[in-house]
Design a protein that fits this description.
Number of strands: 2
Distance between the termini: 141 Å
Radius of gyration: 57 Å
Oligomer: single chain
Largest sheet: 2 strands, antiparallel
Number of helices: 3
Strand content: under 5%
Shape: rod-shaped
């Protein structure tokens, strides 16, 4: 491409450097030099065009590869998104099942504790009655006087 550009620059320079015809836009050019430069340019064009076509074909191949890769990534991303959604759904179902099991367990334990409470209440009532039977009778009037006298004897030093 640099040679093609150089050949064009040489032709433009030739035209710019050509001697002008007074009172006109025309100029005098050396036909042999200009034809030689144009033939050189024509010789380079097929090579440059072929090279440009190769570059365009490579570019198209790269773009096709990029499109395929983009599609693959988009497909993979879609699969990942669906998998994440399914995993979230499974996690929600597992949490719901755990909550239901916990609720059933709480109900079961509450029932067992209520039954145990009834048994403990009955046992406590039975213990209270047994202790009441074993306790000495409440002090009567005579026992009370004896206790007061004993208390006074402890306080007075005879």
């Amino acid at each position: 491409m640099a040679d093609l550009h150089g050949a064009l620059e040489a032709i433009v320079a030739m035209v710019l450097d050509a001697r002008g015809i007074p009172l006109s836009a025309s100029c005098i050019l050396n036909r042999t030099e200009l034809l030689t430069a144009l033939e050189d340019l024509r010789g380079q064009l097929p090579v440059e065009i072929a090279q440009a076509r190769r570059i365009l074909a490579e570019r198209d191949g790269i773009l096709d590869d990029a499109r395929r890769e983009r599609h693959r990534i988009a497909t993979d991303t879609d699969i990942v998104r669906r998998a994440e959604a399914e995993a979230e759904q499974m996690l929600t179902q597992a949490r719901d099942a755990a909550d239901a099991a916990r609720s059933e367990f709480d109900t079961y334990v509450d029932g067992k504790l209520a039954a145990f409470e009834v048994i403990l209440s009955r046992t406590l009532a039975s213990v209270t009655r047994g202790r009441a039977r074993l306790a000495p009778p409440p002090p009567g009037p005579r026992d009370r006087d004896d206790r007061i006298a004993a208390s006074l004897d402890d306080r007075i030093d005879w």
